[in-house]
Design brief:
Beta Polymerase, domain 2, single chain, binds calcium ion, globular, binds 2'-deoxyguanosine-5'-triphosphate
């Protein structure tokens, strides 16, 4: 039981409550707990196991007494009696329907009640037979959306957001590293390339005793099924995810690391380059005829085909081989290049921590600034702030900045808002107010179903406002749950370039929006990116940013492409 397993249980409770039409505040409390737990760095199991009870848990922001009691129960028994009870009330297939993008619990409850639909297949049949459009509140359009959602669901299933797979892979790697005969353990595959979603976990090991590794791997705490067990490779289901392992001899370590990191397309290109030089390149090494030349280090693979080392994040055959050949590989941004975070929430809206707490956490990350960005008033559900609260917040920011200055701390809180771009294209605050704010972040939060042209124009109209500095999570996607709204991304890039608007790379691992491909497009257009945590508490600010940086690297970005690598003065000059 690690934190994300506990978070998953709270999400399931929230799902079922939602389908049952339970009190939305209660649903939200469970969701909030799940999000908190997911990104928490303290290990809940260890807290409970060393005797920390409900009281200690409630000191974690976002965790109330009810949730804390359930955490204790989950750690001690491995399950939640609340969830077990709820599961008896609602068929599990119905809960699965929630994974269909665009299909909410209220609609699910309705189609179940009125048509007796439980499964994805039944839903698809009913939609095709136009049975759904006969229900009140649903029309032909909703029916088409549901069909589109179902095909998306079918493509999605099997892949999970990287933040769900990485902790599992790290657990596996940690256990294997502790074995006597193991020398190296690498988390390979799409995880090492930091893809936004992961199909399966790939672990590569060098060890003197392959059998010991196979024994340990197939009997790990968390293995639900052993799919295949061999002498040097095995495959298991680990907490619902597929995980593969390969053991290779030390002399093959580099070649195997390269091979199992992929991507497949990249590997194929490298192997072709090798063939042209009369070399055979595979997971065991680099060979000329029968003779093994090298392969102990990953660099050997690249060197043998005359290339410099290519970082894993670039290995997609998106032009990295040509760039390496011509000496034009970008110097990729690194996490330590970041000097601030331009999108964090505070307890003035839906954040959990005060501005001061967020600022102190940022200082401990060696940041030089943060932009306290609370939601604007129309995003009611997120406790958006009105003009009056904004003034009060401004006073507090000024006071804190004065204190930093007096204490000789080179840190500054910027005032910001995440202002809603409404469906009629207007912004949720008047220009008079926006003018006074250091960083204006605009974003779409509602009416996500407008057509492509309208959505594009809606975002463009915000960028054309001289007060708007940044567009947050530009495509609105939530991995595995919500498709990006349709956008003419090239138009968006053009206007961003022409208006000097920065586009956000939202680092939250459920968003990663802009995605890697769009980051690369932005770079080609000369559009600047802000890598932002969108954190709602101090732990998130620290924990999610690595996913954003990795995605930026996959999008070929250098530090100079990212505005929050700049000093505060430089930054303020760049923003509009
Ligand atoms: P995933 O699991 O879908 O997120 O993506 P990957 O890239 O982890 O793919 P996976 O797990 O099927 O395979 C892991 C790596 O093994 C892959 O990135 C490259 C290598 N690999 C797999 N199959 C082949 C192949 O047929 N040819 C070559 N050259 N490499 C392969
Ligand atoms: Ca994989
Ligand atoms: Ca695999």
């Amino acid at each position: 039981m690690i934190n994300i397993d506990i978070a998953k249980i709270f999400d399931e409770i929230a799902d079922i409550l939602e389908i049952k039409g339970d009190n939305p505040f209660r649903v939200r409390a469970y969701r909030r707990a799940a999000r908190t737990i997911e990104t928490l760095t303290q290990d809940l199991r260890s807290i409970v196991e060393r005797g920390g009870g409900v009281y200690e848990l409630t000191r974690i922001p976002g965790i109330g007494e009810g949730i804390a009691k359930k955490i204790v129960e989950i750690v001690k028994t491995g399950k939640s009696s609340k969830l077990e009870e709820l599961k008896k009330e609602v068929p599990p297939e119905l809960v699965e329907l929630l994974k269909i993008p665009g299909l909410g619990p209220k609609t699910i409850a309705k189609i179940h009640r009125e048509l007796g639909i439980c499964t994805v297949d039944e839903l698809e049949e009913a939609a095709k037979a136009h049975k759904l459009s006969k229900l009140s509140g649903l029309g032909r359009k909703a029916e088409e959306n549901i069909l589109r959602g179902i095909s998306q669901y079918r493509r999605n299933t099997g892949r999970v957001p990287i933040a769900r797979a990485l902790p599992y892979a790290e657990m596996i790697a940690k256990t294997l590293k502790s074995l006597k005969s193991v020398r190296n353990v690498v988390i390979a595959g799409s995880l090492r390339r930091w893809k936004d979603t992961i199909g399966d976990i790939d672990i590569l090991v060098t060890a003197d005793d392959a059998e010991e590794v196979m024994d340990a791997f197939t009997s790990l705490d968390g293995v639900e099924e052993v799919i295949a067990r061999g002498d040097t490779r095995s495959s298991v289901i680990f907490r619902g995810m597929n995980a593969d392992i390969r053991v290779v001899p030390s002399e093959s370590f580099g070649a195997a690391t390269h091979y199992f990191t992929g991507s497949k397309q990249h590997n194929i290109r490298i192997r072709e380059l090798g063939m042209r030089k009369g070399l055979k390149i595979n997971e065991y090494g680099i060979f000329r005829g029968e003779r093994r030349l090298c392969g102990e280090r990953e660099e050997d693979v690249f060197r043998s085909v005359g290339l410099p080392y290519i970082p894993p994040e670039l290995r997609e055959d998106w032009g990295e081989i040509e760039a390496a050949q011509s000496g034009n590989l970008p110097k990729l941004i690194e996490i330590n290049d970041l000097r601030g975070d331009l999108h964090v929430h505070t307890d003035y809206s839906d954040g959990k921590n005060s501005i001061e707490e967020m600022a102190n956490a940022a200082i401990s990350l060696n940041y030089e600034y943060i932009a306290a960005a609370d939601h604007s008033k129309s995003v009611g559900i997120a406790g958006g702030i009105d003009e009056k609260k904004l003034k009060k917040r401004q006073k507090e920011i000024e006071r804190l900045n004065r204190e930093f200055e007096h204490a000789g701390i080179a840190f500054r809180i910027l005032s910001a808002v995440e202002v809603d771009i409404k469906s009629d294209f207007s912004l949720d605050f008047d220009d008079e107010i926006l003018k006074e704010i250091d960083v204006v972040i605009a974003a779409v939060h509602s009416k996500l179903n407008q057509d492509r042209k309208t959505m594009t124009d809606r975002i463009i109209s915000a960028m054309e406002n001289p007060n708007v500095d940044i567009i947050a999570h530009p495509t609105g996607r939530i991995l595995g749950r919500r498709e990006p709204y349709p956008l003419d991304m090239e138009r968006v890039m053009e206007v961003a370039r022409d208006t000097g608007t920065v586009l956000e790379l939202n680092a939250h691992p459920d968003r990663l929006d802009l995605c890697d491909v769009h980051c690369k497009l932005a770079k080609d257009f000369g559009v600047s990116i802000a890598i932002s945590s969108d954190a709602h508490d101090v732990t998130q600010m620290r924990d999610v940013i690595k996913y954003g940086v990795a995605t930026a690297r996959r999008g070929w970005l250098s530090a100079s492409d990212v505005v929050n690598t700049r000093s505060i003065d430089n930054l303020l000059r760049i923003l509009k």
